Amino acid sequence: MVRTVLKADERRSQILDAARALFMRRGYDATTINDILAATRLSKGAFYHHFSSKAEVLDALCARMAHEGLSAASRIFERTELGPVERLQLFFAAGSQYKDENAAALKAVLCVLYRDENLRLRLSVTERTIELIAPRLAEVLAEGRASGVFEIDDPAETARLILHLGRMVHDAFAAAMRLPPAQRAQASALCRARVDTYERAIERVLGVARDRLTLVAPSMIERFLDAPAPDLDIGKGAES
């Protein structure tokens, strides 16, 4: 049988595709490097040529998902016929749609990132995501400031602030996911309250009227909470 020779970036994508499918189906902890090798039919040497550990695979997977999310949002930034507020709304709507379409994968990732032992990894993923998205968001904010729609001094710093505050929404979703099914109503209330607080805070930061912004649709919250998540208690800590 002839082995298919892939370029380095194609091989890396193959590993990430397999890891994503396994993490979604079995959970991060229950997935071993050997499982990834079996799914990709790679040798350990080939795997370690691209990644030093399973944690590095997760880190790269998070980075790729951030790029995918930005790709969808970039089309919104380019719609210059729209005003700054409309583009900001659509930017967050695109993000919500991406989360909606990839809810199972995102839940698997969140469950891992929000473990105490993964704090450093979570902070790294957060900072890289912000560095990726903030410049494009700052462009919209700068246009809004120039037209008098947003009352801000520094678009770049305001963009970073908005994205950092968004991490608090992720905190709420991660906490809600840990609640048992019997507390589904409490999980929904927690997420809705955090989203509402976030939206009101961003309105004040930008100097726009209250209730002007709807950044996360309530229906997306419910669909995200109802999306299946892998059993994350199986094989905890397995690596190979």
The CATH homologous superfamily corresponds to Tetracycline Repressor, domain 2
**Percent in strands:** under 5%
Using the CA coordinates, give the radius of gyration: 20 Å
- Average pLDDT, all residues: 85
Helix content: over 70%
Low-confidence runs (pLDDT<50, min 5 residues)? 232-240
Tally of contiguous helical segments: 10
In whole angstroms, the N-to-C terminal distance is: 27 Å
Main sheet attributes: strand count, strand direction, barrel closure: none
Q: What is the CATH C level class, in words?
A: Mainly Alpha
> Order of SSEs, N→C?
HHHHHHHHHH
**What is the number of strand segments?**
0
Judged by helices, strands and strand pairing, the structural class is mainly alpha
Please name the CATH architecture. Orthogonal Bundle
Pfam family, one: TetR_C_27
GO molecular function: DNA-binding transcription factor activity; transcription cis-regulatory region binding
Keywords: DNA-binding, Transcription, Transcription regulation
Protein name: TetR family transcriptional regulator
Structural descriptors:
single chain; mainly alpha; 10 helices; 71% helix; globular
